[in-house]
Structure formats: C-alpha cells, structure tokens
Design goal:
73% helix; elongated; transcription (chains A, B, C, D); homotetramer; 10 helices; mainly alpha; DNA-binding
Amino acid sequence: MGSTPQARRSDTRERIQSTALELFVSQGYEKTSLREIAEALGVTKAALYYHFKTKEDILTAISDELGRPVDELIAWGRAQPATLETKRELLARYSSALREAAPLYSILQENQAALRELGVGRKLTERVITISQLMHAGDAPLAHQVRLSSALLTVHFGAFTTARLEGDAETKRKALLDVGLEILDSTRDDG
Amino acid sequence: MGSTPQARRSDTRERIQSTALELFVSQGYEKTSLREIAEALGVTKAALYYHFKTKEDILTAISDELGRPVDELIAWGRAQPATLETKRELLARYSSALREAAPLYSILQENQAALRELGVGRKLTERVITISQLMHAGDAPLAHQVRLSSALLTVHFGAFTTARLEGDAETKRKALLDVGLEILDSTRDDG
Amino acid sequence: MGSTPQARRSDTRERIQSTALELFVSQGYEKTSLREIAEALGVTKAALYYHFKTKEDILTAISDELGRPVDELIAWGRAQPATLETKRELLARYSSALREAAPLYSILQENQAALRELGVGRKLTERVITISQLMHAGDAPLAHQVRLSSALLTVHFGAFTTARLEGDAETKRKALLDVGLEILDSTRDDG
Amino acid sequence: MGSTPQARRSDTRERIQSTALELFVSQGYEKTSLREIAEALGVTKAALYYHFKTKEDILTAISDELGRPVDELIAWGRAQPATLETKRELLARYSSALREAAPLYSILQENQAALRELGVGRKLTERVITISQLMHAGDAPLAHQVRLSSALLTVHFGAFTTARLEGDAETKRKALLDVGLEILDSTRDDG
DNA sequence: TATGAATGAGACTTCATTCAT
DNA sequence: CATGAATGAAGTCTCATTCAT
C-alpha cells in the first residue's frame, strides 16, 4: 500500500501559486480576479480558499518563495563591512538573484499603487529598500550617493527594460552588471 | 464687489484634473474611485461626467497637459542626427522635462498593470519608449546599447528613487544628470 | 424690412419634434436619450426643456399631430350606426389614416412596455382600443368577433409586417384592405 | 423528516427565470431591474449573477425554454414541401405552439426597441421571420402573399389582442385558427 | 431663446469572501 | 479536499431634470 510514496500533500497549492504568478505578471494583481485563477486551474473559487486564507496570501506565498534569494542576500549583506568591495559583490549577487526574483519585482513595479496598502506589498518594497540601503551605507557626499543609486538602478531596472534589446538574457544581464560595476568604481575618483 | 474677479465660467474642470492627479499619485489610478474624487471636490459623481466622458478621460487630460514637454522633446529629437552630442542633449532635456512630467510617469510606473489596457496607458508608454529609441538610435554593439540604457535609467528612475536621499530636488536632479552624461561619454571608449 | 414675413415663431419646436420622431422610431423611446436628440439637433439638452416640459411631452406633441386622422376617424365612427357597412367604411378609413399615423403606432408597438406607465402611452393605446371597439360594436357570437378582429389585425399589423414584401407601399396597403374587407364580408354567412 | 424531499441542490435558477418572466411580461424587459427581480425572490442582486452572467442571459434562458416548440415547428416546416396543405398544417401547429410561447412573444412585441440590439432579441425576431418565410414560400402574386400574411397575423396577433374578448382562451384560439385557415383557403380562388 | 453646470436616482456588473455540505 | 450558493460593498456610468444667467 501507499503506492504514492509519501503523499505529496496536494500539489494544488503549488499549482495555484504558479498560475497566479503567471496571471499577476501578465495582467496585474488587482486586475486578476480569483475567479480567473480558479477558472484557469479548473477549480472553484472556494477551492482557493481552502489553500489560502485570502488573495493577498497567495501573493505572499509567491513572494516568500521567489524572494528567498534576495532575503539571503540581505542577510549576507548585513554581515559585511560597508566597503566598496562589499558593494561590488552586493551588486553582482543582486544581479544574480534577480534571475529568479524578476517576476516578483515585475509585479511589485507594475502594481505598486495596488500593493501599497497590503502587507505583502510593504514586505516587497522593504526588500528593495534594504538592498538600496546596504548599497548606500556609509557614503556621505551626494555625488557618491547618486552614483550608487545609478549602479543599482542600472542592474535592477535594466533587467526589465532591456527586454526590447537584442541578445540573450544572460548576456544582457552581465553587460548591465559590468556597467553597474563601472559606475560603482567611478566613486573612487570623486571626493 | 466680488473678490472673484470676472466670474470665471467655472473652473471645475481644472479642479477635477488637479484633484484627480493628486489622488492618482497618492493612491493609484484604479484605487481612486470617482466617488473619492467627487467627494474631495464637494461635487457629485455626475458632475465629473459632465466635464469628462469617462474616468480614463480625466487621466488623458492630465497626460496631455503634463506630457507636453516630453512630446516637444520627442519632436525635437526626431529632427536631430543620431550623434553622441544629440544624445547628451536629449538626456539633459529629458531630465529637465521630467520636472514637470514626473507625477505623470509616477502614475504610469505604479499602475502599469492597470493602465495596460487603456488608450492613455499605451500613449504614456509610447512616449517613454520613443525617448528610449531616440537614445538608442544607430548604436549597434550590445555594450553600447546597455550603457545608453543605463544613462536613461539613471535619469528617469533616479527622479523617483532618490526621493529618499537628502538634498533638494534640483541638486539631485543635476547630480543624476551628471552621472548619466558620464555613462554616455564612456561609450566612446569601447568599440 | 422684416424680410422674414411674420416671424415663424421659432421652428425649433418642430425640428425637435421631427428629430425626436425619427429617433423614437429607429431606436425606441426609452433608448433615445434627450442628449441624443439635442446632439442630433446641435442644441443643448436645456434647449429641449425650453420647448417641452418633459421628455414625455415631446412624444405627446408628436402623438397629437400624427394621431389626428385617427381621432377624426373615431369621432366619425361614434356617430355612425353599428352596421356592417359602417365597419367596411371604418376599415377603409383606418387603413387610409394609417398612412400618416404609422410611425406613431410603430413607436407604440415597439415600446409598449416603456409607454405603459405614461399618459401619452395610455392615450395612444386608447385610440387603438377605441377603433377596435367600434369595429366590434354590437356583434355577439365569438365567431363574428374573431373575424372582426382578424380584419382589423390584417389592416393594422399588415401595415408594418408587409415591409419585407415586394411592391410599393400603396399597392400593398390596398391589397391588405381588400383582404380585410373580404374577412369582414364573410361575417354575413355565419350565424 | 423534511417535507422538502431530497434537498434539490437549489432551484434558485429556475425561480429566477420564472420570476423574471413574470416581471418582463408585466413591466417590460428594460423597466424591470435586477434589483426588482432579486427583491421579488428575496435574494441579492449578486445571487442573480451567480446563476446568470448578464441580465440578457436570463431572457436568453427563458427564450430557449419557451421558444422550443417554435424551434421544433421550424425544423418540421423546413422539411416539408411548400404546398397549401403544408401551410395549413404550419398555421395549425403555430397556433398550438403559441400556447406555450405566447409570453415570450409578448415580451418581444412590447419591447422590440429595447431588444433590437440584443442577441436574444435578434434570435427571437429571427424565429418569427422564419415562420413567416415558411408561410410565404413559393407564392408569387401579391394578392396571395398578402393573404398568407393576413392568416399568420390573425393567428399570431390574435393570440394577444383577443384577451379583451369574452370566452375561454382555448376556444378563442381555435376560432382564430379557423379564420386563419379560411383566409389561407381563399388563396385558391385568385390567380 | 438658449446655455453651462450640476444633481439625485438608479442601472448593470464585479469582486473578495463565507459557509454548510 | 473541494463545491455550490450566496452576500455586501463598491465601481463606473447614464439619465431626466433643474436653475441661474
């Protein structure tokens, strides 16, 4: 007996998550209704409520999963000294983490207004802000700060806006990172 | 008598526009209901419909007004040769245009998903894309392209994300522009 | 001077009436809004209210004008004895009156539900019923009654439903009247 | 216990249909709001939307149910030769079908303008036109055509307008059919 | 003779959520 | 593990009508 090894505890929850992710990305969080998610899955709305307490909960679960690399990066960052070398590494690791987390941040970006009031929205925003703070840590002169911002902006938003450029995603990612690092290095000259 | 000079034939239309702008920026387009706008103005919902045909129309009017500097910039850009000097100028002018258009693009950014289906959303997006195309015109190698993107990203998104940094807005704008121009200039070295 | 002879007292009222008639016929009474009528005329809604007290009033004016032939027929009918010959004449005159009144009855037919509550609706319905009563007057056996109904139905509804048939309107009208008269004559045989 | 036998999984859908039918007949389609239907049933408007996608959908469901006899008649008619005998039979069967379909056609007639734009309206109209075409099939001279129209008009509209006459419904229906058949037969003489 | 501005009522519809089964 | 049924709140929009100018 027990031909299904140790009963995978229902994959429905995961299917909900991934369907919701797809729809949130393509249509937006608010514009995606639970009815749509349920229909896309071939279940009833009530079924969603068996697996998640609220609509927000679905996004929270997605956020917890896709945001992990960024969380780990934050943990790592907090333990480092605020040197330029740390920041170079931070930028590189963030660029890398975005590979997985991009859909999540796409949702955040495109639905900021809608998520503003939601716990999950605040959490998502916090992560971005924290990365930004780690990047800015210690550096005082505005000229510096702005360069640090620029480097992060390049890596972060570049991930979304360079979709229209030719070339494969990984190549573009590296190119963006290179530019970001250069900007970072240029902070050495001033002040 | 009558401190209201020569009885303007009702400035309600403009008041709707500016109230709506405020609310769209602070709460988002979708999250702002016509009821709220009407209440904030002390009129009825129906009054809004006397002045604007639909909710989208209100945003369109705002977009036409605040987006004018960018439209003019586009017109200018199209008439220029695709030289580095043009791009430097383009970046500078765009930075400048953003002073007025920033709220508009803030709305676009934070409500992208919600505006995707709307005519006005497409128009807004188009403007951004066009600026981006003018910036990328003619330059082939990916390394170049990415730098051009980075420069624009810095100026565009910097306008929103540096709100958290100390310093007055105009100073920060100039600092961002300087970084952007530097990135642009660095395209000379490669290739 | 006074090239406009004795000032035609504003033809706007009449223009409203005829535009409204057109729209009521083509779209229905309820489906035609005052905004549409006003726009079609190039005036404002408020202008309509200068000439007519309510929307219903516009239809009432139309009804008074186009319904006159039927009113006259009713007056005539009431003064006649309830003989078969009277009914033949009644049918012929009604057929003739419909030439002018048809649009009016088209409105009544197609918007019966909407007009049920309205004074003008009741008045319109009354006219039809009265004609019908004049037609049925005096005749007792059901077989008779039904024939009389059939004759009237033929003339009345035929005016609308034979639009799809080939042939010019007047020819069809006469043909319908002939059939109606035949049916009427057939009442002689039974009983 | 439980006088409600085996707990029907909710008959609400049917109750909505029959309540709506009643109201559509007595007040008209447009004049009947979903609020009214809901209140009459003691449910909320949203409940209606659980069972039907739109207001029109409710009428469509009603139309599908009550219109079935006419649909069957059309199917039958299409398979017959265009002889006088067929037309006699068609008229008889149509008269019979109207017993069930009358409320439906009452709605169509009294709300024609309102239903013109609706899919269900077009479907309803089509049915009537098709019956009429089957009736007219093959017969050329206008005198014939008009007689055929008259016969159908008598049976169709007679069903509604003879409500005011004394006598029970079934008797009147037969009487109308008889007259209709006579008119049909009279087509033999001319030409 | 007409307009500009505004209103109050009400329409259809959609949504996230709940709960008994 | 999931469904069927229902709700309450809210949203966008349209309409006939009014009134000061």
